[in-house]
User: Fold this.
Amino acid sequence: MIIIDKSHSKLDLIEIFDSLSVYIPRRLIKQEIIGNIPEYISNAKYNYKVKDVSELIDILKSKTKKQRPNLKLKNLIMLKAKKVVKYCDDNYKLSDSTYLYHEDVYHDVMFIASYGDISTVRKACNLYNASPFCINHINPILSDDKVKEISNKRIIKKNKVFGLKSKKGKVILTFN
Assistant:
């Protein structure tokens, strides 16, 4: 029997096996899926992401890379990120409403950077990195799914074609 880490949700397991060409019905509960794991492993078609059975078992035994902060933690992250954004929008000035020291900003950005899947966190990190008081350049940590999503959005935006539409007709101009 294979022990699966509790951090994997039902959808995580379905996505892992879907990438290996194994169909798992969504109507099954997580415990039923875990009970059928040996069957799913034997039917899996391994690819460049998951090369063999041992690598798949390691993925299932280790914690998921997806970031799932609870509500209390997410509220704290959002508060700190919004505070950093406000500090940056106020031209990096220290005040009672935002920060008293530039090091406090740095510590908050370091705290929120590990939750880069949240768009406000990415914005706060980018604004902080543009700051003249930036202590160290901090990149937000993103999950693989979010990186794919962002790159797909970038490709879609890149493929937009802007053009002019011209229409024939009468135009009346009046001057005062």
About this structure: The chain has a mean pLDDT of 87.
